[in-house]
Amino acid sequence: MHQKGWILIDVIIGIVILSIALVAIIGAYNTIPYRVNYAENYQSALSIAREQVGYVRLTKGILSKVEKQVPSAEGKQYKVLIEPTTITGNLQRIDITVKWNDMNKVGQVQLTSYHDGEEG
Questions:
Q1: Interacting residues of 86 by C-beta distance below 8 A, sequence separation 6+
Q2: Does the keyword Transmembrane apply (predicted)?
Q3: Which of 13, 15, 51, 60 to pair with 90, CA 20 to 30 A apart?
Q4: Domain tally for the chain?
């Protein structure tokens, strides 16, 4: 006789545990598109930053701060900021920051390169 009440409680506890598990799975599933999109944008931004390091090397350094918009192969716009700091003589520290908007959040990649203005 007393078993009927306990079976109902067991069923309710089981439903609660199952509901909690489903909420966790659905929450994780909803973040997957954001993470995939962020990873793609991060790789594109990193590629753009590396291209800018190559540009600075080819031009034998850079004299002043540069801000520009650079499109990716996918057509997304990235904001590039190149900031030179003279350390000593011809030696420069070059900070390259690439930013993008990703689902109402700003993503960012920053590379630092050191360049001797006399190198070719």
A1: 92
A2: yes
A3: 51
A4: 1
Q: Is the Cα dihedral 89, 86, 43, 72 positive or negative?
A: negative
pTM score of the predicted model: 0.68
Domain of residue 110: give its range.
3-116
Residues with Cβ within 8 Å of residue 113, at least 6 apart in sequence = 53, 56, 57, 93, 94, 96
Helix (H, G, I), strand (E, B) or coil at 27: helix
- Phi then psi dihedrals of residue 90, to 5 deg: -95, -5
Tell me the mean pLDDT per 10 residues along the chain, length 120.
71 92 86 84 93 85 84 85 89 93 87 76
Give me the amino acid identity at 8. L
